[in-house]
Amino acid sequence: MTANPSRDAILVVNAMSRRGAEQYEEARRLLEEAGVRLIESHAVENGDDLRPTVRKAVKKAGMVIVGGGDGTISSFIGEFEGEDCVLAVLPMGTANSFARSLGLPLELEDVARVIAKGESRAIDIGSINGETFANVAAIGLSPLIADTIPDALKRWLGIFGYIVWAIRIAFSFSAFRLTIESEGSRTVTHASEVRIANGSFHGGVELVEEAEMDDARITVDAVTGKSMWRLALNWILVLLHLKSQKRTMIEVEAPEFWIETDPPRDISIDGEIRASTPAKVEVVPQAVRVVVPA
């Protein structure tokens, strides 16, 4: 169910994000011109201050508008759980996968109009070993990329920087043994990548088409086999939206999973490494209200 969110809002921008610092003033202007009344605005330059700033804002306003990337949103999404406050997203990151999964435009002027005229929608969030996440987590090559990519490459080339770095490190990466348990079933296989999806976009690309953010389930896609060429083929098939991608992976949907890998692997949660295997994965249904296009 949707409803019109409050137009009185607090703006919080991650000034450390790829575009946050340079777009802060422009975002304020565009939001006010679109009809949003900003009762407070903050450009946060210290990472330790971001979550406390959002926490205070959630208690004071009917809507909190946050500018940043996927890691920014994921780091505090739990602050909105069960609150009357609505989250509105200004995409200012590299991939902006969460915004894409919500169907939001990526240009500031366009998204400001959505925030002013859109509706609120209750969505699920995920939890991995107690760490909440908004959109997608990953095991395998993606966390290695997120952990090692040079900041300059990410800053100047954006998504293409990730692709360049992925090609560089792929040949030194090895597959792992994967165990997935859910709803009484157990799957054991070798895999090169696992995507744990609440939303459909990952790395700016629609990787998990079946994932819905309000179905009270998490979708897990695992690219099977030991070959990096098989992973590359999967990415190509996914990018081309070809159904034959299913031949390169397994897919499971459930409200809860237990995932193990041998050897243990880091888990990238919305682009930031915040957990590792073994992992308990759960969905938190209808946990947060967000602004979406009307």
From TrEMBL:
Q: Where does the record place the DAGKc domain?
A: 4-132
Q: Which Pfam families match?
A: DAGK_cat (PF00781), YegS_C (PF19279)
This protein's UniProt keywords: Kinase, Transferase
Matching entries from SUPFAM superfamilies are given as: NAD kinase/diacylglycerol kinase-like (SSF111331)
PROSITE patterns associated with the record: DAGK
GO CC list: cytosol
Q: Which GO terms describe its biological process?
A: methylglyoxal biosynthetic process; phospholipid biosynthetic process
Any one Gene Ontology molecular-function term assigned to this protein's record: kinase activity
PANTHER family noted in UniProt: METHYLGLYOXAL SYNTHASE
* Record NCBIfam families: YegS/Rv2252/BmrU family lipid kinase
User: What name appears for this protein in its UniProt entry?
Assistant: YegS/Rv2252/BmrU family lipid kinase
- Source organism: Sphingomicrobium lutaoense
| Phylogenetic placement of the source organism | Bacteria, Pseudomonadati, Pseudomonadota, Alphaproteobacteria, Sphingomonadales
